Prior knowledge:
By secondary structure, the protein is mostly helical. The chain is 66% helix and 3% strand.
Amino acid sequence: MVQVVPGGCHRVAGTVEDVVERYFLPLPDDRLAERLVRCVIGLAACGVGISMFFAADLGVAPWDVLHVGLAEVTGLPVGIVLEIVSLLVLLLWLPLRERWGLGTMLNALEIGLVVLAVVDQLPRTDALIGRVAYMLGGLVVMGAGTGIYINAGLGSGPRDGLMLACARRGISVRRGRTTIELVVLIVGLALGGPIGIGTAVFAFGIGPMVHFFLPRTRLRNDSLVLVAVR
């Protein structure tokens, strides 16, 4: 739509500022530096948690089952598939009215880099107790990291945005996250992705773990209420 402005000039209704306001979160004025540090730390923890699941070798997370399955079907590298899936998930945000933030972009970049740097550095063990410790430790670290970076208030990652969209519509974080993980797992299995006991532990455990850490990792006296935890 074109509007006439004083002086006979024309401009297109719906300026760049309008688009930015509609689809992107503004940077908060309150403790921006602290929020950025917390976001980076939380995302790094997520990358370490994912790496611990790989080190356990007891099954990968449902999203990774999907990524591997799609890679098998398309012949594309898993890393490329992960980026494509992230983009498609972000597109799902549009009808859900979720807005992208700085944390959303950091999520797409940082976690993969942390996994790349850490996964081959973790010592491996054939002892079952050690592998189970990696798996359970990875779940806790992943849950804590998710709570920390979401509460930084800089925007959630592509996949966690779906969880938060559910919470805004009256579905608990625990139920929403678990449901999403199960749907992704079923699709990944249908495509031939690998599973193990660790896959089930992550699918059923990450929702309650994030539910536990979200209220415990908020900034003190934070005015940014991103999600009501039930």
